[in-house]
Amino acid sequence: MTTVDRPLRIVRTYHPRRGRLSGRHFDALERLAERYAFVPGEPVDVLEIGSGMGDATAQMAAADPGRRYLAVEVHTPGVANLLALIERQGLTNLRVAAVDAIELLREEIPIASLAAVHVFFPDPWPKSRHHKRRLIVPGRVALMRERLRPGGLLHCATDDAGYAQAMLETLDADPGLTNRFDGFAPRPDHRPMTKFELRAVRAGRPSFDLMYERT
Fold first, then answer.
1. Cβ(27)–Cβ(81) under 8 Å?
2. pLDDT > 90: what percent of the chain?
3. Over 90: is that where the pLDDT of 69 sits?
4. How much is the average pLDDT of 35-50?
5. Is residue 27 scored above 90 in pLDDT?
6. Cα–Cα distance list, 111 to 73, 76, 114, 147, 193 (Å)
7. With helix as H, strand as E and coil as C, how does the chain read?
8. Using an 8 Å Cβ cutoff, are 87 and 111 in contact?
9. CA–CA separation, 57 vs 59, rounded Å?
10. Which of 14, 39, 44, 189 has the fewest Cβ atoms surrounding its Cβ within 10 A?
């Protein structure tokens, strides 16, 4: 058992909320949840933590058919929307898990098995007393890094400038990660622009990308 695998007091990194389901989303959950659900033991190449409504995840999986994607999301309408996208686009390399991503990493993802972990626009938890809930903190970063194979990529993005700086400092301090750039990364073309990010840009909030490789 590694240091990051030892039992810890559970601190949720998300607000557990269902949200209102439209008729088509309810139908997608009823028909497709079992069909496209992640089955423990299935191989995974790219883990997407917090896929939101799933549009960007579906685009990336469609453009990268040679790798197997797993989207982890706890917001029910987002899960349902992604299931509908998988069916509509006929994607065969994308599965969905509606669980706590940290628990899934610890219990279901083998060490040194992932080619990439994506953490795009996680909750910034801006209040100081809530910083322990952030995804990008040393213990959780160590867990993600251990699940990456050598050369694997941890790719984060945020539109919160304070969180971006904290991410940079945390990732720089991890002994098993190397920044692929000098500071923040240029925005990569392969990361689709989501509606959430577009709203941030229109509000004058730039996005910050960070790309770190397991060494």
1. no
2. 84
3. yes
4. 97
5. no
6. 21, 28, 8, 4, 31
7. CCHHHCCCCCCCCCCCCCCCCCHHHHHHHHHHCCCCECCCCCCCCEEEECCCCCHHHHHHHHHCCCCCEEEECCCHHHHHHHHHHHHHHCCCCEEEECCCHHHHHHHHCCCCCEEEEEEECCCCCCCHHHHHHCCCCHHHHHHHHHHEEEEEEEEEEECCHHHHHHHHHHHHHCCCEEECCCCCECCCCCCCCCHHHHHHHHCCCCCEEEEEEEC
8. no
9. 5
10. 189
User: Average pLDDT in the 35-39 region?
Assistant: 96
Section 168-181 average pLDDT: 98
Give Cβ neighbours of residue 54 (< 8 Å, ≥ 6 apart).
71, 73, 78, 79, 81, 82, 85
Q: How far apart are CA 178 and CA 100, in angstroms?
A: 27
Q: Is the pLDDT of residue 4 over 90?
A: no
119: β partners: 49, 156
Which one is catalytic: 64, 123, 174, 209? 123
- Identify whether 172 is a catalytic site residue: no
